[in-house]
Amino acid sequence: MQNLLYLKNFINIANICIDLGHWPSHFKMSTSIIIPKPNKASYDASKMFRPIVLLNILSKLIEKIIGERFQFQSLSKNMIHPCQLDGLKQQSMTDAGIVLTHLVHAGWVKNCSTNTLTFNIAQFFHFSLTNYFH
């Protein structure tokens, strides 16, 4: 029950930030840590180190919520061109299979049959990039 209270409070904070369009300054603060890369002979150059930025966890979660909402609204209003769907949620082969299964089952309910035509497009792009550029 305590976890639900925390979740409700967290969602309220996120909604208030979004509604007001205000991002509190403590959400913008970060801490940078420099870690040396392993197995280097010398550490006299900056490229021998890896900087890592640590952000407030609450701000990271709210940013994720904002990104999810933005993506959902953009897709639902057809604001993203179909060629720009790489990396978006619900655009994987698994999702395509689920949609196809749903369409087949919806057709069965209406006593319809479903036909599909599939092909492997990987064979259409069969060439070596190293040979292409030489």
Explain what you see.
- The protein has helices at residues 2-20, 25-28, 57-76, 93-109, 129-133; strands at 30-36, 49-55.
- Mean pLDDT is 77; it is low at 125-134.
- Strands 1-2 form a two-stranded antiparallel ribbon.
- The chain has one domain (2-133).
- It is 49% helix and 10% strand.
Helix and strand topology:
Layout: H1 2-20, H2 25-28, E1 30-36, E2 49-55, H3 57-76, H4 93-109, H5 129-133
Antiparallel strand pairs: 1-2
Our measurement of the CA-to-CA distance between the termini, rounded to an integer number of angstroms, reads 65 Å
What order do the SSEs take from the amino end to the carboxyl end, as H and E? HHEEHHH
What Rg do the Cα atoms give? 24 Å
What spatial order of strands do you see in the largest sheet?
A: 1-2
The number of E-state strands comes to: 2
Shape: extended
Mean pLDDT: 77
What proportion of the residues is helical, as a percent range?
Answer: 40-55%
Give the tags.
disordered C terminus, mainly alpha, 5 helices, 10% strand, two-stranded antiparallel sheet, 134 residues
Provide a quick synopsis of the model:
This protein has 134 residues and is mostly helical. Helices cover 49% and strands 10% of the residues.
